Amino acid sequence: MRYEYNKLSNILEKYYHDDNYCGVASLCTATGLSVGKSYHLLKRHGRKHRKGTPFKSIVNALKESGYALETLNGLRLKATDNWGKGYYNAGISTYGQAEKQLKTGTYLVFNCTTKSAHVGCIKDGTLNDWTARSKRKTVRSIFKVIKTEE
């Protein structure tokens, strides 16, 4: 992991004056890109400053970086798919449970309520996100980040 969450948070707040950056932090953690490259890549794919990151932006930024998302049962996702389509979570209900069960590989863990959405990244069993403090946030969907051959 290139940056611990506290370092990511500090960079995004201090130098980019940003908030609602869970997508940027997750992309950075999943791919190993720098904070700046992750920020600008998502911006190029539709992320608006301080407004959060649409699912489509994450999928397209991952694709440009040589990665893709797949469900836990191995189905590859497209940018036109919805993060919540079918609620792929393999029976995992909290971020803490996800961290305990997903010990190898890289995963994006999504939560969405009627008021807000959130994405966190688990890399080799470590949740690199602000939710790591409580781990009780509800999981709606989990996707594995895979390196593509392209």
If you had to describe this structure to a student in words, what would you say it looks like?
The protein has 150 residues and is of the alpha+beta class. It has one domain: Cathepsin B, Chain A, CATH 3.90.70. The chain has helices at 5-14, 22-31, 35-44, 55-64, 95-101, and strands at 67-71, 106-112, 117-123, 126-127, 141-147. Strands 1-5-2-3-4 form a 5-stranded antiparallel β-sheet, with helices on both faces. A hairpin with a 4-residue loop joins β2 and β3.
Which helices and strands, and how do they pair?
Layout: H1 5-14, H2 22-31, H3 35-44, H4 55-64, E1 67-71, H5 95-101, E2 106-112, E3 117-123, E4 126-127, E5 141-147
Antiparallel strand pairs: 1-5, 2-3, 2-5, 3-4
Helix pairs in contact: 2-3, 3-4
Summarize the structure.
This protein has about 150 residues and is α+β, with helices and mostly antiparallel strands.
CATH-defined architecture: Alpha-Beta Complex
- Rounded mean pLDDT is 90
User: Strand arrangement, largest sheet?
Assistant: 1-5-2-3-4
The overall number of domains is 1
Helix coverage percent: 25-40%
What is the CATH top level name? Alpha Beta
